[in-house]
Amino acid sequence: LLLVMDERNTPMRTYQVCNVMEANQNNWLRTRHISREGAQRVYIEIKFTLRDCNSLPGVPGTCKETFNMYYYESNNANLWFIKESQYVKIDTIAADESFTQVDVGDRVLKLNTEVRDISNLNKKGFYLAFQDLGACIALVSVRVFYKKCPLTVLNLAQFPDTITGGDTALVEVHGLCVNGSEEFEAPKMYCSADGGWLVPIGRCVCKPGFEENKDVCQSCRTGTYKALATDAYCSKCPPHSSSPLEQATECVCEKGFHRAEVDPRSMACTRPPSAPENPISTVNETCAMLEWSQPRDTGGRGDVTYSLHCRKCSGDGKKCAPCGSSVHFIPRQFGLSSPIVLVADLQPDSNYSFTVESQNGVSDLSSTPRGTVVINITTSQTVSVVLKERRSKDSVTLAWQGPERPNGVIVEYEVIYYEKNQREQNYTVLKTRSNMMTVEGLKPGTTYVFRVRARTDGGYGGYGGEIELETSHEGVFTWMNPVTFYSLFTQLIFCIMLYINDNQTMNLFFRHCGYIKAKQDPDEEKMQFQHVKLPGSRTYIHPHTYEDPNQAVRDFAKEIDASNIRIERVIGAGEFGEVCSGRLRVQGKREIYVAIKSLKAGYSDKQRRDFLSEASIMGQFDHPNIIRLEGVVTKCKPVMIITEFMENGSLDTFLKKHDGQFTVIQLVGMLRGIASGMKYLSDMSYVHRDLAARNILVDSNLVCKVSDFGLSRVLEDDPEAAYTTRGGKIPIRWTAPEAIAYRKFTSASDVWSYGIVMWEVISYGERPYWEMSNHDVIKAIEEGYRLPAPMDCPVVLHQLMLDCWEKGRSERPKFGQIVTILDKLIRNPGSLRELANSSVWSPSSPEFSVSTVDEWLDAIKMGQYKDNFSSAGYVSLDSILYISMGVTLAGHQKKILSSVQSLQTHGTHVQV
Ligand code: AMP
C-alpha cells in the first residue's frame, strides 16, 4: 500500500505491485467480506494504472500487462484464508492506457476504469481478489454497487424501491394502491436489470367519493360526488339533490324527491307524477274504450305508467263493488304505458266507475297519494230476447222483443246467422225495422245459429243469446230454446272487430302484440358479410416501375373535371395539405359524398409525385374494405385526390369516441372487414407496412376500410413512426420484430400489425403498450412478452392476436385464415362468450397447484379475502364452488368467480 499523488496533487492510497524483473509471480490482494444486501447482481468498478512492458528497459519476457479478478461467495464474514482454487474468476483485466514513466515525482497517472458484474449471488456476501502474475500495477479504487428501480407512482399504484434481479431476469413488482384508491386490476411492473421500470400492467382507481389529481386521490368537494371507482372525476350533484359533506359517493335528494333503485346516481332526483287528465270514454255495447292524457307533471321521469281500478255501481251510483275477474282489460289493467285501454266483457245496462292512477319509478318511495282521475260509464242495454221462431225446410222465422230501456230510439234490428261451426267462413247479416224476420233460402236439415241486436241512434246494443235452429226435412215448424253460451274468445273478437272499424288506436294493441313485423334494413346485414371478390391473377404494380410516374396516375386513376367537385368542409390534415369533405357530380348519377385531399401550394416535383402515388396505388384496388378512389384532378391546381367519403373518420378516434358502445359481434364485424381488405391486398402482393387503427376509415354503416397507401407515408407521414437504429422510420408498436430489425416487410409482418389493430379495436382505441417507450416495447417483445387481453376480450380473439404475434413469421396465420376464423365466430357467437383473464401478460401464465382455500386465494393474488372466506365457513376447495362472498369490488368478484369457474373445469389447477 503506497501513498502517491494524483493529477491534482492530492494524496491517494494505491495498492501497487511491480515485480517485473522476477519470473513466476503469483501475488494476491483480497478484500474483506462485502455484504450483498439482497442484490443478485453486483457491479464492480475498478480504477487502476498498468505499466507497458515495452517501456521498461531490460525487463524479461515474463513481464505481464494484465491481472485477474476473482470472487468467492460466502455466508461467513470472517474468513481469514480462502484457497486459490475456491475463487471464481470474473475476468482478466487489461489496460486501455498505460503509463510509461516510473518516476513518481513528474509522471502523469493515466487511470483505467473497468466495470464487471457478477450475477446470481445468493449467499450473504462475497470476497473479491486480484491476482498479479508479474505485471506493474497500481490499483487505485474498487467500487462495488448494485442497481435499483427507484420508488415510483404509476396509475395510482406505488411501486417501492426495488433491487434489480440477477442475469437478465426482470423482477415482477406488485404496486400498492395510493390512499383513497383501490385496485381496478392488480397493478404490477417489471424492474429491469438496468434499473428501469418496464411494462406497467393494471391500475388503481380512486374509490367512490375520491378523484384523481396527479398521483393522489382527493376527496370530492361538497356539492359534488363520485359513485363508482371507475368514474374519472367527481361530478356536480344532479338537479334536486345535494351533498353537504366531502367524499360523497352519491347526492341526497331534496325533500319530496326520490331516486329509484335502478336510477343511475347521475340522474336528477324525481317525484311521482300528477294525476292523468282529460278522461274520455267511448262505450259500444259491453266494451268501452277509455282514454286520457298524460299527467301535466311527469315528476321529471319518462317511465309514467297507469293502472285501472274497476268498480261496478248501482243505478243511483251510490253503492259500488269491485268488478271481479269477469271484466277484461286490453292490453292489461296494471302498468299500462300508453294512456288508453279497452275494457271488454262488461255487463250490459250497468254503471261502472274506473279510477285511472298514474305512477312512475318513484311512486312507491313517496308517501303522497297517487294522482288519479275517475271515468264513469254506463253500458247499453242488450236486446232483444228472441221469443219465437218457426222453421220450414228452407226458411226460419224469428220474432223478438226489443230492449226494455234502449239507450235511444231504436232505428233497426240486425240479424246475423251462419251455418253451425261455419261462422268463420261465411255469415250473413240482415236488417229490419220490425220485430220479426223470415230468413229464406236455407238448406234443409241443416243447423243454423242466429243472433239479434238492436241499433239505436246511440249505437248498437249487445247481441241477445245465440239460437240454434235446424231446418226441417218435411216443412214442419218446431220451437227450440236459445243457447246462451258465449265464449270469452268470441266476445273479445267481436268487441275488437267493432273497434277496428272505427278506431284507429286499435293498431296500437296489435303492435303491442308484435303483429307488425319490424322493417329490416338490408344494408345492415351487408355490412357484416360482404363477400370478397377473388382477385384472380392480378398483382399490384408499384408506381416506381413506371418510368414516367404520371403515366401510372393516368393508367390507374380517372381524371375528374374540377367543376364537378364542391368542397364543403375541412375534416383533417394530411401530409401534403388539407383533407376536405364535399360532393362530386358524376354524369348520369346521383351526387356522391367524397373526401378531397389537396396538394398544398409550393410543392416540389417529388412531392407532387409522392402525393399522386397514393392515387396510382389506390386506383389499382377494388374491394369493399379498401378505400375507393373516385379520381384525381391533375389538369388544374390545386392537384386533388378524390376518394369515397367515410362518415365516421378514422377508426382509432371513432372507437375512443364510442368507448364500450358496441357489441362484441359488431367489433368482430369490423375486424372481419379489415381482415378481408388485407386478404385482398396480400393476394395482390401489396404489403401495407403501416396497418394501424389510425389508417382504417369507418363509414356510416360501420364498414371499415383500409386506407393510407402513399409511397412516402411510412417515412414521413405517420407521427407514430420513429427512427430505428438502422436508419429507417417505423411505427414501432405496430411493426413485426423482423421488420424493425432488418426491414423484412411482408404480408406476414402486416399480419403482426393486424394483431395490434385487433387489440386496438377490442380495447376501444387504447394505445398499444400504453406509455412504454419504443425502446422498452422492442425489448419486451424480444423477451417474449405480448400485449395482454384487453378488458372483456373473448379468449378466442386474444388467442388470434397471440397467433398474429408469433415470433416466427411463417407461424402466423394468413389473412385468408383470419377471415375464415372471424366468419366462424360471427356465425357462432357463443364461442365469444368466454372472456380472457385480463390480467395475464401472455403468453406464459404460470399454473399453480392448490389444495386449500388460502392457497388458492394467494395464487390468484386475492389473499386479502381469506378472512371473508373462512368466516363464511368456506374451508375446503370444494365448498367455494358454491360461493357467494362479501367481496364487493366488481373486478375482484370477477377474478374470483372466473377462477372458481376454472376450478370447476380444471380441478385444482389455478391460472394466475
Ligand atoms: P390522411 O392524410 O389520409 O391520413 O388523412 C388525414 C385525416 O383526414 C384522416 O385521419 C381522416 O380523419 C380524414 N380523412 C382522410 N380520408 C378520409 C375519407 N375518405 N373520409 C373521411 N375522412 C377522411
Automatic annotation (TrEMBL):
Keywords: ATP-binding, Cell membrane, Disulfide bond, Glycoprotein, Kinase, Membrane, Nucleotide-binding, Phosphoprotein, Receptor, Repeat, Signal, Transferase, Transmembrane, Transmembrane helix, Tyrosine-protein kinase. It catalyses: L-tyrosyl-[protein] + ATP = O-phospho-L-tyrosyl-[protein] + ADP + H(+). It comes from the Eukaryota. One of its GO terms (molecular function) is transmembrane-ephrin receptor activity. Residues 1-154 form the Eph LBD domain. The keyword Secreted does not apply. Residues 848-906 form the SAM domain. ATP binds at residues 571-579, 597. It is a single-pass type I membrane protein. Residues 272-381, 382-474 form the Fibronectin type-III domain. Its EC number is 2.7.10.1. Disulfide bonds join 18-136, 53-63. The active site is at 690 (proton acceptor). One of its GO terms (cellular component) is dendrite. It is found in: Cell membrane. CDD domains: FN3, PTKc_EphR_A, SAM_EPH-R. This is receptor protein-tyrosine kinase. It comes from Gouania willdenowi.
